[in-house]
Protein: Protein TolB
Amino acid sequence: MWFESAAHVVLSILTIAAILCGVAELVSRVMRQRWPAIEHAFWLAVLLRLVIPPFMPLATPGFPFWNDSESTISQTTPQAPTAIDPKVSINDKSTSIDTKIFEEAQRFPKRADVTASHNQKGDSTQNSAKTKSSLPESKKLVEKDQTILAQGTAAPSLKEAKRLPTKPKTINTTGTVIPLSVTASERIAWIVCFIWVTGSLTVLVKSLRSIWSFSKLLQLTVPVSSDVQAVISEIANQIGLKKVPTVRVLTATIPPLVWSGLRNTMVVLPRDLSAMEEPITRDLLLAHEFAHLQRRDYLTRWLELATAVLWWWCPLFWLARYRLRAAEESACDTRVLQLWPERADEYAKAIVETVAFIANAQKQPELATGGSGSVRQLKSRLKLIERNRSNVASGFASPLLILLLAILSCPLLLVGKTANESVTATNPQNVDSAEIFSPQKQQEIQKKRSSKKPSQPVALPPYCKPFFTVPAPDNSQIAFTGRYIKQDGSRKYGLFCYNPAKKIVKCLIEKGLKTKPAWSPDSQKLAIGNSPGYGNIYPLVVIDVESGEIDKTGVQGAGAVWSPDGRLIAVSTQFGNAGSWIGGIPADGRIGIWDTTSRKLKYVSPAGINQQDRDSEFRFMTGGIFPRWSPNGKWLAWTQRTTELHPDMKKKSRSEIWAARIDGSSLQRVFKDSTTVSWSKDSASLTETKSGRQVSLKQSETAVPEDWPTLPSVLKKQLIKHKAAAQRVAQFDSKIVLAANRLWQNPELEDIESIEFTHRMSPIRLDEHFQWKKEGTFRVEVTHREDGSEHYGVGWSILKRSDGSTFTFKDSYAYPRYRSTEDIESAQRKPYQLSAKELLRRDTLRHLSGTRLNFVAIDWGRNPNDFRITDYIQKNNTRLIELRATPHASRRVRLNAGAMFETTSWSYMHDVYSNRTILTIDDQNRIIREVAYKGDEVIAEVDLSDWVTSKNGQQAPLRIAIHFPENNFHVDQKFRITDADLWILTSGTSQFAEKEAQKEEIIDLKINASSKALNEAVKKAQSKLKEMTASALPQHKVALQGLTPLEPGATHTFHANPEVGANQFRPQSIRWMPTNFSSNVTRTWGITTPTAELYFPPLKSNPLNINTNLMLVLYDEHRLPLFASTVPEAAVTASSRSAKETLNPLLKNHQLWLRTKDAPQPNVSFQFEGQDEQSPRQLPHKSLKINRGITLLLALDSIRHAPERWKMPIAFSADWNGRPVRVLGLNGPKFSQEVGSGLEKETGTYSYVGGYSISSNKDLVLVVDAETGFPLVERSESMEFQFLDYTEVSPGQFAPLRIICKTRAFDMDLRFQILDGKLWLFDREAHLKNISKVSTSQILIDGKKPSRVIRSSIPDSKGELPWVQWDELKSRQPEQKGDQLSASFAAFTKPWTHPSWNNLTEIRAETGADGRLILRCSLVSYPRLGIAKYWTLTRFSGESVEPMTCAETLEKKSQCEVVVAPFEINQTTLVPRQSDEISQTAEKWSLGGSASQKTRVKSFSIHRDPQQRAVLTPEILSTSYYKGQLVRVTGVLIRDGIVVASGSATDSFRTLSTPEVSKEARVLLLNSDRQTGNSVLIGHRSVVTSSPVGSTWAQLIDDNYFTSFAPRGLLSSRFAEVRQIGLQSLYMQQSKEIYVQYHRERRKGRVAENLIPYRDILNQILSGQNDDSPAAIALACRMAGFSENPKFQTALRALLKHPSEIVRDSAAIGLGLLGQNDAIERLRHLAEQPEPLKETATDQLQRLTRQHASWALKRADD
Structure:
């Protein structure tokens, strides 16, 4: 039946597929990670087996043959119906079926199912027929049934006969047995078929839907940038693709993939994948996808789709597909690693990031190839990359294996086909069918096959990648051009010769040759055109293969062919401009013959032609290629290639066969439109290969026949015009014009040392900072103008080294001008032969005009060799010239105009192409107009006006107007000429029609120009400086009292003072401890700063009015002051004064707008509208900013969250324009203030067109209305918020309707609204100067419009919003009588400028176990500009002064003597310049000090402020090109060696020119109003805060100047507590490298190298030689693991038994990091533990345990 046949087909296919699947799985196990292409071929064979129908199925037990209708037909002609036993019932229906079969048999008597098995069974049937007559009739009938069964099917065995069914049967006329009960089986078969077909349709519909959906999504793709496109071309060439693929970018969570639709094939890249941001990983992923294209894996997707529709239910298919795709990825990985083996680490990182990126993505679309595989495949792929064991020949083995599998599969197909054909063959009854397969016949066939000797061509080894391959005539060697891969993975390109017998590859020429070599007839020499790549110069060389000697013929020739006698070489020679290459040979040359004996070249064919009309671009080219020698060596035939490229871009090409005698005579065309011919043996005729047509050659004396290709008449006329124009151009002298316009076209920079300026754009708030130095460096950086919050990237920073060719790029995200070093070298230097110095000059001049303005007149003046003058016309007093770019520069010449930066542009025209330009020159040789054309269309018009003449007689325009008609874009720019004769922009506007104009200007121009007058002035100034320095030599020396060496961890007990009572504010001892403050970024130990722990006796009373304080001063190794801090006794009490009681009433009355997180809020929806966005929002929201409708975060929000954590050390009252107010100085937990003219979107993106600012602080000044309790102003150091226009929302509840936000960058006037008394929501931005124009609309509360809306009625602000005038706060008085601290701060106009403002946060008082008061002063504001070596502590009580001394205080005068200056009011004191070689001995002194001798304090002056305090103003001099500096100046007032006043101040400034002088710092000497002194000691430290021009600050300044305490010094301390802090500081120092090396799995880390100096210290801690704490030992265990030193293994194993659990855990981590698995179970346990919460973690080490254990576990597993 049909279902039995179908079942047999399915089982036959599955049986063979299962066998192939088993073989493929076995191959996968054996060859995995070595031959992925072979593995892929096996699994591909499994898929092919599933879709190819069987020609002859296997005989499956229990099933008849699938051709059951034919199996009922006898091998002979059917006989008449046989008598039937009456006992056997006959079914009419069966009889009718049998009748049809019988009729079929009569119609097709030749159709019979004949197989070898049937024949064998037929023989046994004939033997049994002899005994039929002797059997009873009933037995004859039974025997006949059995005989027919044997003929129709296989005869059952004896056991099977016993199992035959005994049910009644119907027998047709031919004797075939048909079962009666087929209905049930058929019904089941139909159900199975229905399920199968339904599933197939479902799979098909689902797949088509996926394809359709992704095709729609592809419409959102965008092309890659131009720089990436250049990389794509290079990678495609390296991979071996003949055509550069299309690459698009899509914003979706997809992997990089190859999409093969119905129309095109492309590579799709995800925009948000982090690996795409780095050029290296991006290029590697592109190479992976290109490898898929090269392998044509996308065609396999169609095969998979067809197989999935048919076999969706079969596990074999899903297994085969999974294995197939895994093999595809591995094969592509192998291809990438073959090309870039040195980038295996970056490639592994790219794969991991891609798999992580798509981990939560939806299913990959159908027909998509690639995707970086699944997560389960990741491990095996990483092992493949790590081992890098892939065989380079796998790519070659894949097609061989597929061919082998096809050959192995052919027997099955052929056998099926033979059996099928035998059915139709005539098989007479008297012929035994077994003769068809007789052994004699098979032996004869096999003998004929074996008599043929198979050809065994010699193949190149897999490490040879040929471009052209030519075997030697004697087959002894193979010559090839291409690539040769060495064993170390390096590559060579050139001409090679491979000797199969010796297995040796010999490099004859190392050059990227692209033409075919030619062997001499004796297989001894090779001839080739020695030129890399494609060009028009091909020097013909002849190489002796044995010796390697190269014979340079001195003539041009490519496509060489040796004559039969080996004396002559036919070549294509005398090339034109090329432009078209066939087989690497330019198709515009002629055929010539090189005589190796006479060493002369003679021509056979006429010269080639390569002409082009520069206007219409009509091009005609013809040339001879591929010469062929006649057998007698007297004739040459060749292919004459002719190409016409018409203006409509239609290309017509034809190839003709021409022939001539070797002397050039008898030139004749033999065949039209033909390329391949062959010579006759007698050399008298040529035969065309395709048609077989033969043409006899004719003898002729004609030199050039009429049918030789010539120029078209149209092109001839144009060339005549060009020749006439060239004659006119000869009358024009361009040198005179270029010399007259040199000032603005190509300025001289010889007398300029450096140039710096800022190119400012508005209303876009961006600045482009440009720096250039004569020595050969420049840098371009684009930043946000005011606060630098938005950094648009560094365009590039080119550093010129000794060879002038190294380019260093700082930012790979710069748009649109980022170019890598490889890009520059490939796109600039190689094709156009531009040196690095020339490239630097061109890019510098582009910026020196103040903008990236570029048009042809400028480009011509700077690069005259890039242009040619093609026409010249004289009109009255003006002249017109036509300029065109030369071919080598045509791609580089572009028009740029508008407000554009190096990295970012808005209103601009960029890279506009022009093929010709008309310049208008007046009678004074000035270029006054330029018109740029593209064809006949005008694309740009440039007018140059307002010409001036400089001092040296040069001319330049002061105004340039540019108009682009097609885009309706206009640029108007103004210029000026500086004193240094530099033509530079002053201002300009750029505007598209009906759009806002963009303005630009040049500010902060600094030019350092050398001249004779300037040099003389400098010499005079230096001489005067020497005189002043000599008069100011140090004359005063003072020995500091109380100077004590600083040793972290040591306790210093002060000498007792009997005059001071025991309960007074006088410390008994001090201990200096380094403190690690936690960093919020790394969540580990942060900055290490000094903390002074002062121990006091129990204080019985500590009122605020006691005037007692302590003054701490730190000094460096030269005893120069580093930092000063004053601790008033009143601050101890004030710092513990809680602000909760004061703040609670304020918060209670403002609950609507100062909400708590758990406060109920109605359901609200509103529309947020901005300049570039319009999006709906829903409330309540988890973000407080969104709940307010605008980005606004206040310090009051932090106070509302935890008012109990805030302290109020300062509180005074004042009168503010008749309004009583309270001024509160608060400090508490770190809070943030944030404001922006936008609102964060749900996607996390945001747009703040009008400005954005954020700051973090711990100190706050809050002004509160004394009567109403309304907060009026909150002010931090950099931001101020004014709360105005209060309204009563409900009884006792108030809210402001207006908030003015003041920052250093911008102002905002925010208006709010109150809706139904339930909601306080942002309304609009009311500052008319702000361009943001943000607002809210369409507000719904609980689905309804608000019925009552209260808005501010104050008009919108027009002018600048003012800061609060703090000097208007009059009558300032402390709220608590006698509060000296508040009174001190009230004396300052701005309280936050008080020198002790930051110190109040750093003071923490507590009571010890013995009842003593411990005062910890953490000097967080201590500058990280040096390591303190000494300290002094002075106690002031009223008028008395006491230097605190201890046993360790220095007493020798030589040890504590310093150089001081006299204390003189209103006098300027010159500070002598200290020696460059500062000695640490006591014999040398200096007044002032610096980390860099190029920045120092030149002088200082002292004056009194209104409170009679001494203020020191230093003059800071900088003579270096630093971009930004931070200078900390500390002054100390001394009386008789005692420090009586001190202060510190910081100055931050930019060194834009040299020398730079700053007088901004003001050092207030605290306590100088009560104490007098007679000398001043001043010290300073400077640090570079941003990169200097042409170098890096880290190379100029010692690292020790950037730390408070060096880890090495702390680790060598004698105190265990200090050593523990040193370990934490060491980990903090290496934390970034540790994270990069272990978390990002970059094995090439520098942690181990950095920890080498600390190995001995770590070993001491691990060995237990010191009394270190368990926490210190635990951290030392982990640092030992990070050191990768195996010597620590013994100590770490011993610590596995340590009593402390943290030590045992850390020892296991250390061993794991060293690759040991001694405690692998403990590591697994630690890695599985959840990360502790910040609130519950006991220390930082505990928070790192899980992460460290994961790293150690992975390293141990590896």
Summary: The chain has 39 helices and 78 strands.
